[in-house]
């Protein structure tokens, strides 16, 4: 007989979404049993930091998302290196690969994403990698270390966030990188063309070759059958010793398909992060959650949304109603010392939007408005006050009568209408609140 | 929790709060040495200015801090007891996601050191250095919401 473990809260996925969910649960329910399950063998680490592993061999201890005693201190059972194979929703049971069954009262699917591998010849060759997990980074590192001396050339297929991250790490390892991006500019899900051009210029300055508007049609081999290069869709060959496939991630929905859980591109959740099956929640890269800028459910595979969604899921799982109503896409990058932030809808999808833009030296600011409200933004260079604009976006403040100020070089709260900052920063007037101890400077 | 609030009507933007913030967060207590070092610490506050409005701005130590939830490295934490939001500068990787997340632009990028700095309400002092040293009494340290 296989044993069945019974837990109150079962969390599948030990990363941003899963950890934030358990933290929210523990704030409300200090002793309900929690089990976290992951098919990765490591305690929760910061996934974006795998580029630091590749560039500088950052040890796992310095990539950990929480203190090493996190699980123990929070009384959380963690099962690592084991995969959930199958959900039995009627029985509230999950089956692991080794036959173990775990039954839950509340379930969270924070299963993240899987690398998309385009269908083409040669993807199975030695020297072809994805860049999603710490084990991917370790495998790339090992492969680079055993290549014979001399210049190593890499082709990175896909110029999105992950493609550019791995590129930076490879450049730091003195690898000569060519990025092949199918669309007309890199980072096209988070930047408009002009902004992306500034990033591309910085990458080129660091020695990166960027080919846009082209795709890879096959990965070719060398004499031993390992990677020798790629062929582009115009027939042009590129030589390379290593190929990284970084064309995107798709939600890892395998546990939910063919169950009662509604799956679209991702696992569909409402604003409380609950799936179509009561008691089963999802968040993070696996989920298709509400994005308030687009006013619809979307897959937004970014770390902050996994954390916010996790917090909301955890609160609801522990019985405290909560909603994720202000989630939006947002990214911050720092490649080769260039700071770039973006949030919301940076490219207007149709007419009826207004774009405010300013450019000076290396500083770029782009703010997209709809009906007087900020719906998208990009800052490049000096990004320190960008959060002020994102806050106006989140609060949906009508900025029509002061929109010029948003481009002011010295953007700060004092240039904005008083009602935005005063309630948060002005000292309470004396006598306002009784029994208050006021400490005033000498 | 106690937070720092501004009396904007008496602030003259003398920037002494910045200086005292730097001094309080400098490894040496001697002002000459603190500022003669190659890179003095960055102030953890800013002066907001559009005459006639000026005031000194510090982290709100929000109830649900967007910076904490956005941190890729798990380097920013809100202390459950004190409510103070602090950054572990060694853990911070300088991705600046919190800078974009902070509604007030209160987080500073220390580009030279590759990590953020932010107001920590001066641990070990009864009154934060900026408040204690404002010559005009333009800062107060009192109980209040974020
Ligand atoms: C190189 C790189 C750079 C990035 N940079 C940024 C950045 O700068 N900013 C940003 O916001 N985001 C960035 N991201 C994205 C960010 O890492 C993700 O959005 C985030 O990790 C999502 O967290 P999650 O908890 O949803 O899922 P994940 O972090 O993907 O974790 C899911 C976990 O669940 C496990 N799992 C899945 N299915 C099962 C199963 N059936 N059984 C057991 N375990 C299972 C997986 O193995 C995995 O460990 C980056 C990602 C990468 C790869």
Structure overview:
With 442 residues, chain A is α/β, with parallel strands linked by helices. Chain A has 3 domains: 4-113 and 250-317, FAD/NAD(P)-binding domain; 117-247, FAD/NAD(P)-binding domain; 337-424, 2-Layer Sandwich (Enolase-like, domain 1), CATH 3.30.390.30. Helices cover 21% and strands 29% of the residues of chain A. Chain A has helices at 16-28, 50-56, 70-73, 134-146, 161-172, 193-205, 303-317, 386-395, 418-425; strands at 4-6, 9-12, 34-38, 76-80, 84-88, 93-96, 101-103, 106-109, 113-115, 128-129, 153-157, 176-181, 209-212, 216-221, 227-232, 237-239, 242-245, 249-251, 267-268, 280-282, 287-291, 296-298, 330-335, 338-344, 353-360, 363-370, 373-380, 439-440. Chain A has a 5-stranded parallel β-sheet with strand order 4-3-2-8-20. Chain A has a 5-stranded parallel β-sheet with strand order 10-17-11-12-13, covered by helices on one side. A 5-stranded antiparallel β-sheet of chain A has the order 23-24-27-26-25. In chain A, a hairpin with a 4-residue loop joins strand 6 (93-96) and strand 7. In chain A, helix 1 (16-28) runs parallel beside helix 7 and helix 2 packs parallel to helix 4. Chain A is globular, with a radius of gyration of 24 Å. Residues 431-442 of chain A have low confidence and may be disordered. Chain B is of the alpha+beta class and 146 residues long. Chain B has 2 domains: 1-58 and 120-146, Alpha-Beta Plaits; 61-118, 2-Layer Sandwich (Alpha-Beta Plaits), CATH 3.30.70.20. In chain B, the strands form 4 sheets. In chain B, strands 1-8 form a two-stranded antiparallel ribbon. In chain B, strand 4 (76-78) and strand 5 form a beta hairpin. The radius of gyration of chain B is 15 Å and the shape is globular. Chain B starts with a strand and ends with a strand. The mean pLDDT of chain B is 93. Chains A and B meet through helix 7, strand 23, strand 24, helix 8 and helix 9 of A and strand 2, strand 3, helix 3, helix 4 and strand 8 of B. The complex binds flavin-adenine dinucleotide. Flavin-adenine dinucleotide (FAD) binds next to helix 1, strand 3, helix 2, helix 5 and helix 7 of chain A.
């Amino acid at each position: 007989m296989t044993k069945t473990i019974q837990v109150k809260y079962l969390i599948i996925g030990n990363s941003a979404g899963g950890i934030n969910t358990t933290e929210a649960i523990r704030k409300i329910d200090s002793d309900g049993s929690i089990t976290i399950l992951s098919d990765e063998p490591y305690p929760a680490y910061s996934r974006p930091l795998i580029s630091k592993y590749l560039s500088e061999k950052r040890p796992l201890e310095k990539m950990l998302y929480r203190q090493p005693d996190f699980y123990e201190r929070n009384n959380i059972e963690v099962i690592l290196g084991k995969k959930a194979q199958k959900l039995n929703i009627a029985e509230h049971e999950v089956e692991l690969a080794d036959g173990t069954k775990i039954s839950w009262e509340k379930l969270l699917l924070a299963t993240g994403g899987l690398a998309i591998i385009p269908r083409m010849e040669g993807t199975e060759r030695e020297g072809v990698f994805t860049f999603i997990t710490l084990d991917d980074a370790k495998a790339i590192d090992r492969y680079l270390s055993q290549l014979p001396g001399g210049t190593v050339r890499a082709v990175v297929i896909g110029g999105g966030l992950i493609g550019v991250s791995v590129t930076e790490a490879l450049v730091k390892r003195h690898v000569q990188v060519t990025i092949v991006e199918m669309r007309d500019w890199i980072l096209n899900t988070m930047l408009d063309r002009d902004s992306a051009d500034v990033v591309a210029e910085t990458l080129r300055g660091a020695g990166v070759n960027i080919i846009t508007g082209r795709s890879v049609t096959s990965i070719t081999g060398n004499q031993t059958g390992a990677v020798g290069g790629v062929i582009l869709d115009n027939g042009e060959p590129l030589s390379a010793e290593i190929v990284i496939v970084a064309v995107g991630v798709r939600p890892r929905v395998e546990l939910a398909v063919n169950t009662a859980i509604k799956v679209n591109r991702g696992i569909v959740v409402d604003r409380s992060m609950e799936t179509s099956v009561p008691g089963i929640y999802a968040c993070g890269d696996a989920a298709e959650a509400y994005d308030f800028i687009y006013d619809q459910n979307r897959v937004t595979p970014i770390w902050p949304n996994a954390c916010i969604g996790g917090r909301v899921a955890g609160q609801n799982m522990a019985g405290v109603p909560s909603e994720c109503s202000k989630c939006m896409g947002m990214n911050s990058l720092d490649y080769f010392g260039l700071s770039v932030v973006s949030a919301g809808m940076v490219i207007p999808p149709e007419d009826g939007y207004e774009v405010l833009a300013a450019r000076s030296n290396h500083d770029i600011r782009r703010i997209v408005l709809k009906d007087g409200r900020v719906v998208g933004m990009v800052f490049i260079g000096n990004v320190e006050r960008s959060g002020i604009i994102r806050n106006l976006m989140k609060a949906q403040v009508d900025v029509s009568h002061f929109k010029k100020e948003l481009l002011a070089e010295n953007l700060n709260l004092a240039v904005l209408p008083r009602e935005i900052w005063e309630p948060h920063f002005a000292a309470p007037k004396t006598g306002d609140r009784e029994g208050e101890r006021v400490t005033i400077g000498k | 929790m106690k937070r720092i609030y501004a009396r904007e009507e008496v602030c003259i933007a003398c920037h002494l709060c910045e200086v005292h913030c730097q001094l309080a967060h400098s490894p040496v207590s001697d002002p000459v040495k603190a500022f003669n070092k190659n890179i003095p610490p960055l102030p953890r506050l800013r002066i907001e200015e559009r005459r006639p409005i000026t005031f000194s701005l510090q982290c709100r130590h929000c109830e649900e801090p967007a910076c904490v939830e956005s941190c890729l490295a798990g380097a920013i934490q809100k202390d459950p007891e004190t409510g103070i939001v602090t950054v572990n500068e060694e853990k911070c990787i300088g991705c600046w996601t919190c800078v974009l997340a902070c509604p007030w632009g209160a987080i500073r990028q220390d580009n030279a050191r590759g990590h953020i700095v932010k107001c920590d309400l001066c641990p070990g002092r009864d009154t934060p250095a900026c408040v204690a040293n404002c010559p005009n009494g333009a800062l107060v340290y009192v109980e209040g919401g974020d």
